[in-house]
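The following block was generated as part of the benchmark described in Methods. Ligand: nicotinamide-adenine-dinucleotide.
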Amino acid sequence: MAILVTGGAGFIGSNFVLDWLQQSDEPVINLDALTYAGNLENLASLEGDGRHLFVKGDIGDFDLTAHLLAVHQPRAIVNFAAESHVDRSIHGPEDFIQANIVGTFRLLEATRMYQSELAESVKAQFRFLHVSTDEVYGSLTQDDPAFTETNRYAPNSPYSASKAASDHLVRAYHHTYGIPVLTTNCSNNYGPWQFPEKLIPLCIHNALTGKPLPLYGDGQQIRDWLYVKDHCSAIRQVLAAGTHGDIYNIGGWNEKSNLEVVHTLCAILDELSPRTDGRSYKKQIVFVQDRPGHDRRYAIDATKIEHELGWRPAETFESGIRKTVQWYLDNQTWVQNVTSGTYRHWVDKQYKK
Ligand code: NAD
Ligand code: TYD
């Protein structure tokens, strides 16, 4: 038995693959197109590990995915592959439509063909888990209750609209073709190996290199932060015990304004790696022009996954953010390879092997 993971060289996908292989010996076929966000360096510790098979390719390549499914006969697919950065989706939505909508559609088509040809014994076990986001539910006001699985979809950015479309396709393939799907809608993740264009790694990197810490607008937008390894454990749990066709919201019960997050980062950095002039990193905070259509608040009600599957996050925001800052301090070479673009050469070299 094996599982097929897509997007397993990205931030959450690589954490998931590492986590999976720490927990079990079940092999992972890792299909990733290695866009700018894919970094095989994240998986360097798996070099020579026969349980991990990396395949460079696009989930939108029907022939490739059909071939991988036929050859490896995975008992599950976990679909992380996507364009994932809201700001990039504002500047160039096309890639998001291709990867997130067309890509998911083609992967579902290959799955449909695979599923129809599966032996009954394997068919009974097979699952397609689609990893999605809380951003599909749109923006909350300060007083709104947190998102539950029955909230109406109201995506506001090209990114969230493309993820919403992919969620709808996944749902339709369950209802129409009986594909045993599971969908997870998770809040903002943070932790090791996050590309430093997202708020938390960007601010850690900018703080340490003496650059401004840019907060959009008034910095009072709220996100519900989850440590990435908790997201991985939730996905494992949904894959193991979730009900076919169901949606599971995943969140850390950690609503924080962006300003609070950056203040926390500054305080931890002041302690662990103080500025040479003795002043706080808070001095580097600047308020910059807001993101167009910026959602004000996201919050996840994670009651269903707790009640039905017994999952709760292991980390508080305080423990997870401290681990994250420490990780970035300990892995400055990784950060430098990403910010200088060297990781692309590393990927080329590694892939040629
Ligand atoms: P990421 O951008 O770090 O990684 C995405 C990975 O997918 C990269 O390795 C990239 O090379 C690969 N990829 C992109 N298009 C592809 C394609 N067409 N075919 C194959 N591979 C492709 O993203 P992430 O933050 O790790 O997010 C992973 C998933 O989790 C996404 O589906 C995202 O919507 C979802 N999600 C992310 C967050 C978050 O806070 N980061 C929160 C909730 C849900
Ligand atoms: P981000 O990490 O891009 O995730 P998302 O937009 O998917 O929630 O941003 C998290 C929050 O931080 C979001 O409200 C936008 C804000 N933000 C800034 O204020 N400054 C920045 O430089 C970035 C990248 C994000």
